[in-house]
Design goal:
Layout: E1 2-9, H1 15-29, E2 33-40, H2 42-46, H3 49-58, H4 63-76, E3 80-83, H5 93-100, E4 105-107, E5 122-123, E6 126-127, H6 138-142, H7 150-155
Parallel strand pairs: 1-2, 1-3, 3-4
Antiparallel strand pairs: 5-6
Amino acid sequence: MKVLLAHNYYCQPGGEDEVFIRESELLRSAGHEVLEYTANNNKIAEDGTWMKARAAMRTFWAWDDMVGLRSLLRRERPDLAHFHNTFPLISPAAYYACQREGIPVVQSLHNARLMCPAATFYREGRVCEDCLGRFMPWPGVVHACYHNSHLQTAVV
């Protein structure tokens, strides 16, 4: 089986990064062909202000990555795509690329970032589900849940 693994590495390596690495090794050791589609948040830290603003906008939809990923999918034709972390450099456009190319997708949720800007459902010492089920996480923006920033929370 040919599997595409997609992951956005964090600046500080953690459990999600390790799971991605180990899954890749495990699949290869079982005889599967593994393609890796990755990004690394260290790139953002190295960029200037303009590029950081561009990275924030790409969180919503990265057209150039979608085009590149579709090209890879057409060329390699994986049987399955398994997504781990896609925030912030691999955007939802990657899912669209897979859908357009007829590639089934599996998503591992290692945290609650898709439903909670803080990714924890925890704020000010208590469980918080104010953003759960909302299309836009406005309560999280009001409370500046991501990096204690209203603006950064709005982007998340």
